[in-house]
Amino acid sequence: MEKNHFFTQIFLTLMAVSPMIACNENAAENNDANPDSASVAKASVTQAEYGKIGDAIVTQYTITNEKGMIVKLINYGATVTDIITLDKNQSRGNVVLGFDSLAGYLQPGNPYFGSIVGRYGNRIANGRFTLDGQTYTLARNNNGQSLHGGIKGFDKVLWNGEPVGDNAVKFTYLSKDGEEGYPGNLNVSVTYTLTNDNELKIEYSATTDKATPVNLTNHAYFNLSAGADSTILGHELMLKADSFTEVNNVLIPTGKNPPVAGTPMDFTTAKPIGRDIAQVPGGYDHNWVLRRDGNGLELIATLYHPGSGRYMEVFTTEPGVQFYSGNFLDGRLKHTRDGQKYVKHAGLCLETQHFPDSPNHPHFPNTILRPGETYTQTTVYKFSTK
Ligand code: GLA
Question: What does pTM read for this prediction?
Answer without folding.
Answer: 0.90
